[in-house]
Structure formats: structure tokens, C-alpha cells
Design brief:
The protein is of the alpha+beta class. The chain has two domains: 181 residues, Beta-Lactamase, CATH 3.30.450; 56 residues, Orthogonal Bundle (Arc Repressor Mutant, subunit A), CATH 1.10.10. 36% of the residues lie in helices and 22% in strands. It has a seven-stranded antiparallel beta sheet with strand order 2-1-5-4-3-6-7, with helices on both faces. A hairpin with a 5-residue loop joins strand 3 and strand 4. The longest helix is centred in the middle third of the chain and has 18 residues. The relative contact order is 0.15.
């Protein structure tokens, strides 16, 4: 398959030496990874060995997506299920991520970014659904490069019926974000854009997307019901949305979740 060959070449680009190996820069708390990845619908998590081009871990939920045992799922299974018209988009996103991590940032900041994009994925019933890809660096090698990524794949057609064909690079812990990079145009320069929401507001948006009412949000965050309702209204106003459904869909299109 031509797409898998092209993808393999892109993933090998992650092997470029970016800095000498330093153990101090190789520490990452798994809790931080999980906290930065969001599962808005049916999902599975995975760990991907980039240079080798294979999954080293796949959550059992993946069976519902591929119709086979999670230990038997190969990267070719994923690519074969991507809509043919979305293959170039997929490859371009991976190429931009590789370039970003090896050329655009300080190598010591490897673990400070999340990468988000979506495409059409063919489910076990043969129908294509809107599929969200989120990943973050999980480990670095002796060349200081990312060797392993950890990510989550989830269906989001209940939030947004189709992809906006854009990639978002989300800065974590106050690092800059590059939102809505237009992959399908020649001018896909990285433009820094501030995340419009605070960390607390993003936390509330995630709870809203999970269907939690204000009372439950208040209880989870140890705040009053009135404060939770105020937060909800302020978020809607900031996003210029009339409903929470519109809000969540907009946040996914922006790539801020």
C-alpha cells in the first residue's frame, strides 16, 4: 500500500537526532498524559513505536473498532480503514508533526504538546464515521527524539459530522498553541493562537461534553451550583455559542479539547 510506505518514511523522520540523551528530559508522568487526552465518545487508547511503525499497546476497546483481538491490530489495519480521500490529509498531518518536533521546538519541550486532527474511519459495519486522533509524546530515545507516542482514538460524529481538515497543536502547561492549521492548502504555516479558555474552563467544557449537568459539575469541582452555572454561561458567551452542543462542537473544530 502506497500510503503505508509514505507513512513509514515520515515516521522514520522522527528518528533525527535533536539533542544528546539526558535522563532529566526523559521524565514524564503518565497521569499528565492521561489528563491531557479526552475521550468524548467510544474510544481506545494506544501506544505507538514510531520508528518501527507498530503498536506496542492497544486497549481492549479497540476490538469494537477493528473487529479483531487488540493484540492482532497492525498499523495497516488503521490505514486501510481511513477513507481513501483522507489519506493525503493523514500523511500531511503526520509530516507536519514530525517537522514540528524535530525542527520547530526546543528538544527539551518534547512532552509539552498534544496533536489533534480527525478524519473518516470505516467501522466494522462498513460505514464511515468521524474519528478523532489525539496523541502526545511518551518517550524519547538516545538521539533526544520522540520514539513512542501515546494516544486516544474516538468517534465524534455525535459532536461534529465531518472533519474540518485541520490540524491543531495544543501547547500544554502554558506553552503556545497552533490551532486550525489548514492542511489542504499550500499555506499551512504555523500561526500561534492563544487557547481562548482557561484550564478550569476546559475542565468544565469536558464535563459538559460528557453530559454532566451544573449540579454534578459543582460537586466534582467542589464549587457551588451557582458558580458552576456562572462558569457555564461565561464559557458560552466567550465562545459566542447559544447551546452547549454548539459549544462542544466548536471546541473540537478549534482543537482545544
Amino acid at each position: 500500500m502506497d500510503t503505508i510506505n509514505q507513512a513509514t518514511k515520515i515516521w522514520k523522520a522522527f528518528g533525527k537526532e535533536v539533542m544528546p540523551f539526558e535522563p532529566a528530559f526523559n521524565d514524564i508522568d503518565v497521569k499528565d498524559i492521561i489528563g491531557n487526552l479526552f475521550c468524548p465518545g467510544p474510544w481506545y487508547s494506544f501506544r505507538f513505536e514510531i520508528n518501527e511503525g507498530h503498536f506496542s499497546y492497544m486497549h481492549p476497546n479497540a476490538r469494537e473498532f477493528y473487529g479483531k483481538d487488540e493484540k492482532e491490530i497492525l498499523v495497516t489495519d488503521l490505514i486501510e480503514r481511513i477513507h481513501p480521500d483522507d489519506h493525503n490529509f493523514f500523511l500531511n498531518c503526520e509530516a507536519i508533526v514530525a517537522n514540528f518536533l524535530t525542527e520547530k521546538i526546543d528538544p527539551s519541550d518534547l512532552f509539552k504538546y498534544k496533536f489533534v486532527y480527525s478524519y473518516r474511519f470505516r467501522g466494522v459495519d462498513g460505514k464511515y464515521r468521524h474519528f478523532l486522533h489525539q496523541c502526545i509524546a511518551f518517550a524519547r530515545g538516545e538521539k533526544g527524539n520522540m520514539t513512542t507516542s501515546f494516544g486516544v482514538h474516538s468517534y465524534i460524529d455525535h459532536l461534529s459530522p465531518e472533519s474540518n481538515n485541520k490540524l491543531s497543536i495544543i501547547g500544554l502547561d502554558g506553552y503556545p498553541s497552533y490551532l486550525g492549521i489548514d492542511i489542504l492548502t499550500a499555506n499551512n504555516k504555523l500561526l500561534t493562537m492563544d487557547n481562548p479558555f482557561t484550564k478550569r474552563e476546559l475542565e468544565i467544557i469536558r464535563m459538559i461534553s460528557e453530559g454532566m449537568p451544573s449540579k454534578e459539575i459543582a460537586k466534582a469541582l467542589f464549587i457551588s451550583h451557582a458558580t458552576a452555572r456562572t462558569h457555564r454561561q461565561n464559557i458560552l458567551n466567550k465562545a459566542q455559542c447559544h447551546t452547549t452542543t454548539e459549544l462542544v462542537a466548536k471546541c473540537f473544530k478549534l482543537g482545544v479539547l
